[in-house]
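USER: I would love a firmer grasp of how sequence relates to backbone shape in proteins. This is the protein in question:
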Amino acid sequence: MNSTSFSFTNSSISNNVSGYVCPLCPEKTNAEAQFSDRTVDKALVQTSCQPKPHTYHLGCITRHFENPANRKCVICDHEPLPLYRVDEAKLFEDSPYCEAHALAACRRGDMESLNLFLSAAAPEMANRKFRSALTGKQVSLLCVAASRGDIACLKVLISKGANDLDTALLNAAAGGHVECLKLLIEKGANNLNMALKSAIGHVDCVRLLFEAGADDFGGAQMMAIRKGDSASLQVALKNESQDLSHLTIFCAARGHAECFRVLTDHGAKIGLSLQVAANFGHVDVVRVILTNVEVTSGSMYLALWAAARAGKIDCMKFLLDNVPEINLLSLQASLEEARDAGHTECVECLEKTISSARGLSCTIL
């Protein structure tokens, strides 16, 4: 197929654009775009704006985009790319803002046009990569369909010989598209562990990948904590005999309280997690620890010292409200640390606590 144009009209664009006046024309009445003699400039394109696309002359909006600050639709201020040609999609697109017919059909979920195109085109077209108007990079049709969760287009592409299965698997996993994952695995995609990390945040996908044979439990656990996905973490904690203590520190630093609860429910030791959580001011994690784990008074005062040193007043107040007994020496150590660090609010709170504990009205010096 040597032609650079394609005869299929994009059936998903049905707006009546006859006599349309482009909002970017130099003159509002110039519906024929006579500012340019080039046919390409007179072509009508529609944006990807949601919920409603808008129509421009390709020449007008191309000129508008020459300024990097002008990459929004002038009508609705939404993301306009990719642009879609109203009259005729091209086999290979020359505008950086439009996309080739096959990619445009795949992007819009136009399974009928995609099937018709691939049936008429050379067999290798199903595996050809096309330039994305969103990133400027080459993308495969299979990956775009998988990213959208478009099972119909995915089936068409696979039936026509598309074989970029493993990369498409990552895209489907990242989007949380379970049915697409099932189809790709059924057709031979086997990069399960990489897909597993992409799937964190979508617990049904995580569960499916483990059932299909993914076995990187440690990587999934770490990624789940990084993203604060307690449901996926729960699924990934299959080997209950493993030492999870290193994960509690990481979780405390991130401040993911529900993930921390899951870890302790599976027997993880808290180690220095209380002090780490206090240092970062994660009150919710501190609350989970004090609620679910027996903590010594000494550990709580170490956490109080860490909170005072870091200036985390809310965490410090929470610890003071829950410390089982007053230890003036430990309070004084935290006060001195807060003073040295210049945390005025923490200093005032600790001075008040110490003064009250001693039954004095004077400030501790």
Notes: Residues 1-17, 360-365 have pLDDT under 50 and may be disordered.
